[in-house]
Amino acid sequence: MRPIRPLALLLGLLVAVGPAGAAEVVLRLHHFLPPPSTAHSKLLKPWAERIEQASGGRIEVQIYPAMQLGGKPPQLYDQVREGVVDVVWTLTGYTPGRFPISEVFELPFMAASAKATSQAAWAFYERYMREEFRGVHPLLIHVHAPGQFHLRDRLVRRLEDLQGLKIRTPTRAMRDGLAALGATPVGMPVPQVPQALARGVIDGALLPYEVTRPLKVHELVCCHTEVGGARGLYTAVFLLAMNRQRYEALPPDLRRVIDEHSGMALAREAGEMWDRAEAPGREAARMRGNRIHALPPEEVARWEAATRPVVRAWVERMNAMGLDGEAMLREARALIERYSR
Question: Which GO terms of type biological process are on file (predicted)?
Fold first, then answer.
């Protein structure tokens, strides 16, 4: 029998135990925005690094931006639900009507700052939306800062200026809101907006300033109309979610790591981040020489009145589901007010 050489023994041991420092758990995180975006660079990448550090290297989070693992943005929720990927960050409005309860925060003139509304959304989730997201394990629910109009070749100064304009909308609530304002809503994921603007498929888009820089939207439009006040025209709800079976299969101590870096504290952090990201996006538009118009309060009041039927329709949908729509609307507003203090 030939003796086992020391080098062969060492190589065998390395194969048995794996490379030094290899993670026990590798989580693939998939999302739809490019690496320069706030979501990737300021939220998801630091979050992944904290998870890895807190787990002592036992969890590795691999991030795949810009749909690198395939599919289209509206498919992200099903990708994580079915275990195609382990974690996703997505916009719930990309699948209109699938998450009707969460739409309360997307209603016209509902949102305050991203920080306040994100915390309100997480608190509301804990009471009302667990069943709605039962197919996954939510880690974070948050919103962006109130969005504005970014217009290809004309400035909107009053309600009548919107008549017939084709405006990109991210959610069902603002699809109905734009229709109530007289515009023609066009639903599309945000990565498609630059090409749609460049080709004239749309006349403008509803977006927060934050995302206009990484997508270079400010270079494709001439004008921006801002709808200010205590409550913004709209926001959109984002979801960071993990495959439920993948989460439940983790050892208890690693589940605690995930839990300690999820929830309300992360919602507050994300909201603050999106609020801060508005100013650089607006400044990029200003420096380019784009025209920026803030609607006066009396004009904002006209827009709010025109969109009230959209809010009433949401309440009626909740009532039809056997829920108390009025009470839920009051609570969502109260939570936003509470976290705005």
Answer: transmembrane transport
* Successive 10-residue mean pLDDT values, the chain, 341 residues: 38 38 93 97 98 98 98 98 98 96 98 98 98 98 98 97 97 98 97 98 98 97 96 98 98 98 98 98 98 98 98 98 98 98 96
What SS3 class is residue 30?
A: strand
Closest of 157, 167, 171, 172 to residue 221, by C-alpha:
167
Predicted structure pTM score: 0.93
CB 87 within 8 A of CB 243: yes
Q: Which residues pair with 261 in a beta bridge?
A: none
Q: Rounded to an integer, what distance in angstroms lies between the CA atom of residue 118 and that of residue 172?
A: 19
Nearest CA to 310 among 119, 166, 107, 13? 107
Question: What pLDDT does 21 receive?
Answer: 64
What pLDDT is recorded for position 78?
Answer: 98
Q: What is the spatial distance between Cα 47 and Cα 45, in angstroms, rounded to a whole number?
A: 5
- At the topology level, CATH places domain 21-144+236-277 in D-Maltodextrin-Binding Protein; domain 2 (3.40.190)
Q: How far apart are the first and last CA of the chain?
A: 79
- Strands 59-64 and 136-143: what pairing? unpaired
What CA–CA distance (Å, rounded) separates 318 from 326? 9
